[in-house]
Amino acid sequence: MTMSFLSLRALTKTYPGNVQVVRGLDLDVAQGEFISLLGPSGCGKTTTLHMVAGFANPTSGHVFLNGNDISGVRPEKRDMGLVFQGYALFPHMTVAQNVGFGLEMRKMARAQAASRIEEALEMVRLHGLGGRYPRELSGGQRQRVAIARALAIRPQVLLLDEPMSNLDAKLRGEMHVEMRALQRQLGITTILVTHDQVEAMTMSDRIAVMSEGKIAQLGTPFDVYDRPASGFASSFLGQTNVIPGRVTEMREHCAMVQAGPCLMRIPHAGDKISGDVGVYIRPERLRLAAVGTGNLSGTVKTRLFLGNLWLYEVESALGRLRLTSANLGEQLPQEGEDIGLSWRDEDLRAIPGERANG
Q1: pLDDT tier at 3 (50, 70, 90 boundaries)?
Q2: Cα–Cα distance for residue pair 310/257, rounded to 1 Å
């Protein structure tokens, strides 16, 4: 078995008062992989990153880098680059001086450092701006300076602590694409801490959805979104409809679930479920149908225009359901209209032990 490049083993962090923020967390990261720690405030994702960086000492557990236990190694000796939420640029230093700060701390020769600074600025498309000060740059440019500073030392691991949260939505979206392209180009192992689901799905090879100091689910963005392992993972990563149901029969490849007036056929991969379940279906997997057709009837209560999408809330025998429909320029049902709703069996996910409230 090949040892992973970065490994967290039984990592735990407990603060005074027996407040356990991280609980026996295990994670393996391959060399060159981009992993996001995604979760709400207080779930332990930032504390986990700080233990990887060396800013916080684990109460128990270990951090291994390339087979070496670095749990007791000082932060500056861990060969990791960090980009923080606030960028942490020195306002009295030029862009070039900021980028070269880590090199100066490492006592690199001036000529070599100058070459490394220029190379890092080229990487983030800031060539020619080395003489400016942070106050003379836009938010996106300041973020790139912070990234260039982290990359200039050529770290083995890049750690990103919500680095785009101060940017507006449009610029954030652009930076997601740029940062992911740069990470792939360099092949640098990267861990991102974020509460932004779009950011995690856009940039990651894998996502670790965290809850209460543990990893609730670990997988590719597609798997975590499309095959959630828990109600928490499903609800946190994107919008979802939750329908209360009860398993009536288990068949070879599906579970029969009674949800209100609907008997749902939900495919499974050999999982044994019984009793109360929550049936989860994403809004984009519900489809508008003509009245009297489809799986269910309902009445449009709310219709909102989102540009590329229409968002509907429909009152039905299964409660109020949300669905989205692409804006293709066609005539769609208005508020107050009766409609049909349809779905495919494979769009449904049953999660046991979660009697939903609808």
Answers
A1: low
A2: 29
d(CA 220, CA 306): 27
Distance CA 180, CA 207 (A): 14
Output the six-digit token pair for 270: 């050999």
Q: Is residue 85 within 8 Å of residue 165, measured between CB atoms? A: yes
Residue 67 CA to chain centroid, in angstroms?
A: 27
Which tokens belong to 104? 């100066």
- The Cα 101–Cα 94 span in angstroms is 10
Distance CA 190, CA 33 (A): 6
Interval 72-121: pLDDT, tens: 999 989 999 999 887 789 999 999 999 999 899 888 999 999 999 999 99
User: Does residue 270 register a pLDDT over 80?
Assistant: no
Torsion of CA 211, 217, 219, 220, to 10 degrees: -60
Max Cα-Cα span within the chain: 77
Alpha-carbon distance of 48 to 35, in angstroms, equals 13
- 328 has a pLDDT exceeding 50: yes
Residue 354: its pLDDT value, please? 53
- Residue 244 CB partners (closer than 8 Å, separation 6+): 259, 276, 278, 279, 355, 356, 357, 358
pLDDT for the residue numbered 345: 95
All domains in the chain, ordered by first residue: 6-232 (3.40.50.300), 239-352 (2.40.50.140)
Distances 260 to 81, 92, 245, 294, 316 between C-alpha atoms, Å: 53, 65, 7, 15, 10
DSSP code for 132: S
- pLDDT per residue as tens digits for the range 54-65: 999 999 999 999
